[in-house]
Structure formats: C-alpha cells, structure tokens
Amino acid sequence: xxxxxxxxxxxxxxxxxxxxxxxxxxxxxxxxxxxxxxxxxxxxxxxxxxxxxxxxxxxxxxxxxxxxxxxxxxxxxxxxxxxxxxxxxxxxxxxxxxxxxxxxxxxxxxxxxxxxxxxxxxxxxxxxxxxxxxxxxxx
Length: 139
What we know:
Elements: H1 5-25, H2 29-48, H3 50-55, H4 59-81, H5 86-114, H6 117-137
Helix pairs in contact: 1-2, 1-5, 2-4, 2-6, 4-5
C-alpha cells in the first residue's frame, strides 16, 4: 500500500528543509540540483493529486498554495541564475517555510476531515505516481 499522502508530503518537507540548511552553510550546484529536482517533483505531485481533490471545497486555499508554488519556482530559478546569492536563498527558505506551515497546520487537517480513508489511499497512490514520474523527468 502507498504511504499516507500526508506523511509522505511531510517527509518530503523535512528533506527539503535539510537541503536548504545544507545550502545555507555552503552553496554548491549539486545540492541545488537535488533541491530543485525534489521541489519540482513534489510541487507537481501536489498539484496533480491533493490540490484538485480539495479545490471544490477549499478553492481559495488551493489557489493560494498554487501561487506559493509559483513564487517558489521563480525563486529557485533566480537562485540558480545568481549562483546561490544569500538574499535569494533567504527569500526561498522563508517562502518554503511559510508554505509548509500553511499546508501542515491548515490544509492537511481540513483534507483529513474532508476525505475518507479510501479517498486518502487513492490520493496517496496518485501523489506517489506523479512524484516518481517527475523525479525521472527532472533528472
């Protein structure tokens, strides 16, 4: 059985936080590439699984989360272009921390109330499939 979608996403959040911490100590391209790959796959998986499932009842929340993804994508690109500029890394870290906090403290509890276990399992499988597909594409 697929990992519970909420636990899977939280686990990926912790991985991203660890990569950001590594970059803040010393920027290197391989760590950036891993961060970019992880985030691109993670965001696409959310956008193709959890977000559409919630959109009907929580449209404003989903739209806000998608806007945050757009901001994170822009900051990732800017970080690459500027070779790890500390100011951009700081903005990216803050944007990700804010997004993670909103998802884990607001979105996930609402989703867990909204969906039964069967639907959560479906979403978990869908997230896993998109995540794995995207990891292969962005390598």
